[in-house]
Amino acid sequence: MEITILKENETSVVVIEGRVDTVTAPELESAVKPLINMGTSVVFECEKLEYISSAGLRVVLAAHKQLTACAGKFVIRHLNREVKSVFDITGFSKILNIEE
Amino acid sequence: MKQKRKIRIGSLSAQLSLFILILTTTLLTTIVFLNYNSSRKLVREESIEHAQDALDNTILRIDKVLSSVEIAVQNISLVVKENIDDPSHMYGVTMNLVQSEEYICGSAVAFEPDYYKEKGHFYSPYSYRDGDTIKSKQLGNKNYDYHYMDWYQIPKLLNKPYWSEPYFDQGGADVIMTTYSYPLYDDDGNLFAMLTADISLELFAEHVNAIKTYPNSFNVMIGHGGTFLVHRDKDFILNKTLFEMALYNNDSLTLKATHDMVDGKRGMVEYNYGEERFLFYAPIQATGWSVAVSCMHSDVFAKIEDMRAKVMSVAIPGLILLVVLCYILIHYMMHPLNEFAHSAMEIARGNFSAKLPHHNNNYEMKTLYKSFSFLQNSLQNYIDELQLATVNKERIESELRIARDIQMGMVPKIFPPFPEREDIDLYAKLIPAKEVGGDLYDFFIENNKLHFIIGDVSGKGVPASLVMSVTCRLFRTVASSVHEPSGIIKSLNDALSESNDSNMFCTAFVGIMDFDSGILKYCNAGHNPPVIIDADGNASFLPVISNLALGVWKDFNFEDQEIKIEKGSNIFLYTDGVNEAENTNKELFGEERMLECLAKYHSKSPRIIVEEILNEIKAHASGAEQNDDITILCCKLTLNDNIAPDCELVMRNDTADIMLMAEFIDGLCEKYQLPMDVGFSLNLALEEAVANVMKYAYPEGEVHDIVLSVKLTDNRLMFKLIDTGKPFDPTIVPDADVNLSAEERQIGGLGIFLVRQIMDSVEYRRIDGKNILTMIKLL
Predict the structure, then answer these.
(1) Alpha-carbon distances of B665 from B126, B685, B689, B753, B775, rounded to whole Å
(2) pLDDT reported for residue B392
(3) Quick check: B662 and A19 CB within 8 A?
(4) Residue of A nearest to B757 (CA)
(5) Fewer CB under 10 Å: which end of chain B, C or N?
């Protein structure tokens, strides 16, 4: 997994590539944590995200909860078909802001 | 108990009072109205009569005056004739005439011109009143040529006595007067003189006004042309006519009345010149004048107005008094009702000994008191009975609960029942319709053979449960020594048929499954045929000879049957509570639906199959009460569990080894040529299962192996995850609720949910200190 953080105006764009699984999820969590603590707008750019497991979903849900709690904005975009199906099965599609 | 003295609009007392008020007011008003109208009519008639009488009286008086004058004149005329030769005597004659009648204010004997040569052209001796004395003078002269006066001319032409229209006499007494002229004729019938008597109009006015009919009434008299002769306004006299008045006021009725008056008719007219008045009129025959009385309406109807005022002054306070009295009386009468209402509320609150108001003042309240007392006693008795019944019911219920526990204790209830065996999985459930039921099941393994029974005692409840318990115990005893299903059935039948006075019977199915040979021997005693579902999901009824239910006929010859059961098949046994479950429309669940469900869930574990069938039954019943005991026993012969896997991966309990697993699965996908999305979901499910074990199965710091093995048979990809960590059954963890909002969702808890979503079957066993999680994915 590789993480790149870009700044677009006030928004932090987290570009995630590769697999987010039990092993890599903690890395994502620690990379995103300072952005969330800033309480601004965060986007997960997932075009090159190949795989996500429940450990990754846990990070996503935590980010969403914390950002919405402090009136920030959290968006996930460009999920591929397989990854999107995981979001669908778990009901995350209904509660998160997912952009095509 | 103290009632508030407050008038409530909605109260019976207020409503009754109001009702009485309305009724009496209406009645009274009607009576008063009718009475008033008829009285008014009567009073009107009476008043008119009274006025007419007064009028007649006046006319009578006038007539009397007139006739007395006429008679006096006639008498004196004889004296004139007697003394015709003595002209100077005529003064005395006239003086006598004036003296003879008090009404006469002047009198003259007016001779024809030159009647007495010596007296000249005019000779008219005239006597008149001047204060208390009577004076005389000669009336005629050049300036006063009486021969052309009306009083002289008209009777002369008419040849009869005549009352002149009133006139202002300047030659004589200088007053308004009327003159009665009496023509005197000589023996040849030639007129030689006119004997006159003057009457002051004031005198008439006195007479006319002498009668005051009503306080505000006044009288008038009019002459031939409608000229006022008598009027309360002196200026009217001789100056105005009644015609003028009528025309001025544009009053056709008065105009017509004036014509009537002039024409000498009598009558009455109503008019309004500023105030409403009646005018009664009648003629004076002798003169052709008309006398009228004008009376005010209010005077005429004064009596009736007075009466009305009196009636009102009595009626209004009377009505108010009536309402107040009615209210007080009704309130007093109704008061016990309020007390009864209060008592009823007390009783309703549970105070059955609440004191009842005792009022003996009328029959209704006494009856109400009796009814309430009866109600109170009945309630008390009823509650006592109810309490007793409840206590009894509770005792019976508690006994039934205990009986239920005992009965449930008779059937095996620990699942999985054979955790040490990998070749069989079994699940069973018994749901009695009442506290206790007549269904039964039992099973045990002996000599690598599974002995099982399912049965249904006729009827339900306690009687059925007694037979059920006997059958259960007998099966255990008999089956351990008898090794043929028919033998077991026969023993049960003999025992149940013996002294079966209550004619209870029991359908049953007994089977013995030999795991070594895969042969199922079975014997049916009138029970529903079980269903066999093979590994591909084909569900079909087991061919059975129905035979006869247990306890019907002692020496019945039961036949055995047998069949080979393939690995991976399910044997599904049930009682008629399943296929005959009814919904509210009395539609049966049915065998077809049951087979469909079984085909649908065949790949699941027996526990899931049983639970799903029960859910389907519940959905079908849609709230209808369960009317029969439901029992299901499902047994799965697990597929080739001991066959060597295609390949296996050994990992340490370190999450870093997840990477190894991802590579392992990539390899599998290549080997089995699996599509990408299947590879993705297998990766996901297995990561969740493995990560779970890595994180939680072992204490921190210890290093252990975790084994993941894979086996593909036909289209079934079977994974086994084996660890030696602490016991943990992921299949019993409740599903995560995916419909909650983001705030309600818990972080975590998703892993096992994903495993169950992706895999078609997940089974857990604990064997020899190992957790074995078997996951099957159908391709």
Answers:
(1) 172, 11, 14, 20, 15
(2) 93
(3) yes
(4) A89
(5) N
3-state secondary structure A50-73: EEECHHHHHHHHHHHHHHHHCCCC
Task: Supply the pLDDT for residue B58.
Answer: 82
Closest to B427 (Cα-Cα) out of B609, B680, B617, B688: B609
Pairing outcome for strands B289-296 and B424-431:
unpaired
**CB A64 to CB B742 under 8 A?**
yes
Strands (E), B432-538: 439-446, 449-457, 506-514, 519-525, 531-533
| C-alpha B281: how far from chain center | 68
Place of tokens 């699942």: B415
Report yes or no: B437 and B467 within 8 Å, Cβ to Cβ.
no
Put simply, the answer to whether B754 touches A89 (Cβ < 8 Å) is yes
Q: Where are the alpha helices (DSSP H) in B135-195?
A: 150-158
Six token digits for residue A39: 């309480």
Contact A90 B687 (CB under 8 A): no
Helix (H, G, I), strand (E, B) or coil at B698: coil
pLDDT at B642: 58
Q: What does the alpha-carbon distance between residue B48 and residue B269 come to, in Å, rounded to a whole number?
A: 11
pTM of the model: 0.44
Show residues of chain B in contact with A95, CB under 8 Å.
740-742, 745
For B628, which DSSP code?
S
**To probe the interface with A, which of B652, B655, B681 has the most A CB atoms within 10 Å?**
B655
Answer for the pair B377, B383: CB distance below 8 angstroms, yes or no. Answer: no
Distance, CA of B736 to CA of B419 (rounded, Å): 27
Q: Give the pairing of strands A42-52 and A11-20.
A: parallel
| Residue reference for tokens 């660890």 | B723
- Please answer whether residues B633 and B455 qualify as being in contact, where contact means their C-beta atoms are separated by less than 8 angstroms: no
Residues of chain B with pLDDT under 50: 1-4
Q: What is the pLDDT of residue B525?
A: 94
Distance from CA of B742 to the nearest CA of A (A): 6
Residue with tokens 């620990």: B414
CA quadruple B217, B221, B227, B229: dihedral positive or negative?
Answer: negative
Contact criterion met (CB below 8 Å) for B125 and B196:
no
Q: What is the pLDDT of residue B3?
A: 46
Structure tokens at B667: 């390899």
CA A27 to mean position of chain CA atoms: 12
Alpha helices, H only, B185-301: 201-210, 242-248, 252-262, 297-300
Which ranges of chain A have pLDDT less than 70? none
- B750/A65 Cβ within 8 A: no
The answer to whether residues B54 and B213 touch, using CB atoms and an 8 Å cutoff, is yes
Q: Which residues contact B690 (CB under 8 A, 6 or more apart)?
A: B651, B658, B661, B706, B708, B721
SS (H, E, C) B445-460: EECCEEEEEEEEECCC
Q: State the smallest CA–CA distance between residue A66 and chain B in angstroms.
A: 10
Question: In chain B, what is the straight-line distance between the N-terminal and C-terminal CA atoms, in Å?
Answer: 84
pLDDT of residue B723: 93
DSSP conformational letter for B352: T
How large is the greatest C-alpha to C-alpha distance in chain B, in angstroms?
197
Inter-chain CB proximity A53 and B662 less than 8 Å: no
Beta-carbon contacts of residue B577 (< 8 Å; ≥ 6 apart): B431, B433, B439, B456, B626, B628, B629, B630, B631
Closest C-alpha to A36, from A77, A81, A86, A71: A71
Residue B625 backbone dihedrals phi, psi, to 5 degrees: -70, 140
Chain B contact set for A85 (CB, 8 A):
677, 681
Asked if A57 and A98 touch (Cβ cutoff 8 Å), the reply is no
Burial (Cβ within 10 Å: 0-12, 13-18, ≥19) of residue B742: middle
For tokens 């023993």, what's the residue?
A: B491
- Which two structure tokens, joined as six digits, stand for B553? 């006929």
Q: Do B677 and A22 touch (CB under 8 A)?
A: no
Report the residue from A19, A85, A95 with minimal CB separation from B741.
A95
